[in-house]
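hey team, just a heads up i'm posting the complex here instead of the shared drive bc the drive is being weird again. everything in one block, sequence lines first with there labels, then the predicted structure for the whole assembly after. its two chains so it's a bit long, scroll down
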Amino acid sequence: MNLTVILLNVPVAAEQLSNWDMFLEASILMLIGLLTVFAVLTIIILLGNLLIKTVNRFFPEEVKPIVNAVQTIDSNVQEAINKAILTISGGKKAAQKIEKL
Amino acid sequence: MEEILRKVYEMTAIADIIADPRFLIMYLLAFVLLYLGIKKEFEPLLLVPIAFGVLIANFPGGGMGVLGADGEGMVHYMKDGVQVAKNVYEMSLPEIAHDLGIMNLIYYALIKSGLLPPIIFMGVGALTDFGPMLRNLKLAIFGAGAQFGIFAVLLVASQFFTLQEAGSLAIIGGADGPTAIFTTLKLAPHLLAPIAIAAYSYMALVPVIIPLVVKLTCSKKELSINMKEQDKLYPSKTEFKNMRALKIIFPIAVTTIVAIIVPDAVSLVGMLMFGNLIKEIGANTSRLFETASNGIMNAATIFLGLSVGATMTVDAFLNFQTLGIVAGGFLAFGFSIFGGILLVKIMNLFSKKKINPLVGATGLSAVPMASRVANDIALKYDPKNHVLNYCMSSNVAGVIGSAVAAGILISFLG
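-- predicted structure starts here --
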């Protein structure tokens, strides 16, 4: 596609373009190109904002209630901890309470 | 005995290399690229296959160099001691493999057909997270500012090359290897070798080029702008209630919009977004994601790298046109970084909330290397200023921006 011919109605074949014509054609392409890239990314930004609002309104994530379940500790683990404390303290100390943090 | 020795000598490539010492330059180039890839760790996944492709393509008699077709698709080669000219597009794949060797088979079946660049884009999409871009949507506009280099160099190169060649050269400014290859195949396939090597080399040199342009164009005060502090001073009102749903809908919506506005960019943007979609869906498409991001991506990278390297034969590479492309490519790269920085500076003039110009410099599509380099620069000026997430927004937008720019060039010049 020859931009100069299309946009400026310059009646020359592509292979006959002078340096000035080429410069002109490249300038037009630069303008169109930059504007299009800016337009597309602007649209993507607007689209992104629209999607954020839409998702927030119609598909908000379900908030799962936090269950305060009693966290039990395996009896073997409790026993191992007790034995470790007794060994280290030489039998002087014992665990008062063991719970998961 | 003398006859045997002579035949052994003729069997080796030594005689041909002595007859045409330009081969030595190509070996040197291959060794330098291998050094950069292995020792300096500049994009080793790409640079090592390309460099090795250059090396094996330039051993006379090895048959691993890609034969470039002329404007009518004719390739000229020796067969049974006779010069043969055939239209490569009328040759069957087994014939190409038999007459021209396996590297030509890979090149014409996978590269020249335009198959691999979109496939690699799918892999890139599968490895891309649009989260940082969605969290900082406004910064995505710098992905457009950094396409300035493409069109600025198109303008300059139009005085030395045909417009198709100038367009292919200019796309190096997008800092995206697959996009550069895809565009060049459509506009000026005879320039594929130097353009691919320039694009990938400059991508590998992002850690050198970005600091250079930033140093020349930004002040210490600008580079010390702390984005998190700016966020605290001017907090965003946007809240995200379901990021996962947003990330799934986003690639579908972007593909649809881009396809309507620039249909020529769909093969790249569409595949990019498809790769991203199968990543974001999660467990239900995890097998597709694994294949796209690992198996296919890695295989495609190997074939692309080796065969692009193999296009760099002595005749195709060592000429003045290549020098022009190497110089023009550097300009395109530099102007693109500057374009992003300039846009930030302009916006900072009108906005209370200041933006670090590094966010503009990463509007290139060299993801995520450009962002990492920018983050390192920011930390030098302020050890608490982590700009990575902000830079990733413009960086990822740059991938879309350069694909759109490629689509425009193909649409008007193809």
